[in-house]
Amino acid sequence: MPYYIGDVIKDEAKLTARTPAKFRESGIEVIINTKVEQVDPVGQVVRLDSGASLPYDLLALGTGTVPRMPGIPGEDMEGVFILKRLSDALRIKAYLKETACRKAIIIGAGFIAMEVCEAFVTRGIATEIIHRGKLPVNRWDPELGLMIFDELKKHDVAFTADAKPQSIERGSTYRLRLNTNHGPTEGDTILIAVGVKPDTTLAEAMGLAIGKSGAIAVNFSQQTSVENIYAAGDCCESFHRISKRWGNIPLGDIANKQGRVAGSNIGGKPKIFPGVVGAQSFRIFSLEAAATGLTESEARVYGFHPVGLITWGNASANAMPDAKKIGLKLIADAATARLIGAQAVGEAGVVSRINTLSAAMWSGLGIEEIGYIDLAYAPPFGGSWDIIHNAAQALLRKL
Amino acid sequence: MGKALVIVGAGAAGGSVAAEAKRSDPGLSVTMIEQGPHVATAA
Lengths: 399, 43
Fold this sequence. Notes:
The complex is a heterodimer.
Chain A: H1 2-5, H2 20-25, E1 28-31, E2 36-40, E3 45-48, E4 53-55, E5 58-61, E6 65-67, E7 80-82, H3 86-99, E8 103-107, H4 111-122, E9 126-130, H5 142-154, E10 158-160, E11 165-170, E12 176-180, E13 183-187, E14 189-192, E15 196-198, H6 201-206, E16 229-231, E17 238-240, E18 245-247, H7 252-266, E19 280-284, E20 287-293, H8 296-301, E21 306-314, E22 325-333, E23 338-346, H9 350-362, H10 367-370, H11 387-398
Parallel strand pairs in A: 5-16, 7-14, 8-9, 8-14, 9-10
Antiparallel strand pairs in A: 2-3, 3-4, 6-15, 11-12, 12-13, 17-18, 19-20, 20-23, 21-22, 22-23
Chain B: E1 4-8, H1 12-24, E2 29-33
Parallel strand pairs in B: 1-2
């Protein structure tokens, strides 16, 4: 959706994977603009806000997330947006067009904030980020977060750190004013992007078990605590193969996979969801950022013995002109010498390398073997010793 | 008469449940309920 807002994707129809008409063609009934008010898990009936009741033999919950809000006065003013659904994206894009927006404020600095920031800047809108922390995207360690911070500065994005939004009111120079602990700042539009939480309202009302993460608890077949009720996607938990714990990771690829697993089991074809390793990525201007596995602080909490090391390198052969800077941090567990986390930021080849390392972690590979793993290379993409090899060997020496 | 599956939400998860359930058991009656106007959208 940020790419639609930035007009990189021009046609909103491209954001719909399958229309209601196409679903109906496959024999799937679709009821839109209708809320499920209540589910009776004993009587096995779903009650809609239209007044209708639907009996079921099997139920699947894909209720997603709800956006977190700062809870400040004025957050419901015109020109203040969240970006959760396609209707939000359509409204934002229309607003930018109709009001000749000159400046935007984004509250938040996670990957959604980054993507929307790029969208605004691409449209020629001066952009300011208001963040509670010191550096953007705190999932990435400070050395890498600093690369992101510098990239924002290079594109004239103002970054206000250690900031707490206090209220929103009408502005004088621009349409809106955001008051913070650092004083006021103005913009024609404000985007709130401070995170999401799983939508478990129905699940809780039904008495389904909720996991420690606050998301609906499920087993490997995506079943909830009630045998004929399944859950999939952002609203439920996922099993993390590295931490061996259940957590909530709201990402679309996980939603697709869990949905397919649930659907397969519902349809009588046995399937399990094999878990996640926490792979995630985003682009910000000329940089790619990606991460997988655990951070050192997470690893310590779970009782691992993390040892991390950042290696700087070139995502093209050194002999080639125009070096492509890349910083790769690997985290291993000292007890087993296994890779338990990786994160990278760079000008090229970041996502592909983190995906390689995701597969390595998925399979429980050790740092020693990763240092010698067989990878494709050619001068435009890297040296014959890849940064993955160099980083793994350097980390092994540190262990 | 096949079993009835009701799906709450027609996002990535709901849409995937619907498609795979129907594919795995064509005799299933599948109904997806979405609170908003759009279904199966990319984020």
